[in-house]
Amino acid sequence: MTGRPPDPPALRLGLDLLALSELDQLTERAWFMNYVYAPQERSQAGTMAASRRREYLAARFAAKEAVLKVLGTGLFQGVLPRDIRLPRGTGGAPEVELVASAAAAATRAGIRAISVSITHKDSLVAAVAAGW
């Protein structure tokens, strides 16, 4: 033992960018909606007008992709995107909740917390996630 404090956890970043139109056909398919989105997210989207729903689903998808990168995995590689939940926190900013397969992947990767930010501009949505 050297007497020095342990190294701080490494910061891991994930970034995703997509055009709103990239998900149009997929979000019409029940299997995709059930695979990617948590029941609460599907319910929330169902209360929105079509254009807002499209933006909301695309933003959530981009955020989940960014979180998957922080976890060191990709889509269809063992972590169900619906196990990455993105509820609105106080003030409206998204928060990250990991359950089941996503929580297990975070534990394996040594990730204790993840934060995400989402932005929209015209027909693009981007998300960045930071885990430590």
From TrEMBL:
GO terms for molecular function: holo-[acyl-carrier-protein] synthase activity; magnesium ion binding. Residues 13-109 form the 4'-phosphopantetheinyl transferase domain. InterPro entries: 4-PPantetheinyl_Trfase_dom (IPR008278), 4-PPantetheinyl_Trfase_dom_sf (IPR037143), Ppantetheine-prot_Trfase_dom (IPR004568). The keyword Magnesium applies. Pfam families: ACPS. The keyword Transferase applies. It comes from the Bacteria. GO terms for biological process: fatty acid biosynthetic process. This is Holo-[acyl-carrier protein] synthase. It comes from Catenuloplanes indicus.
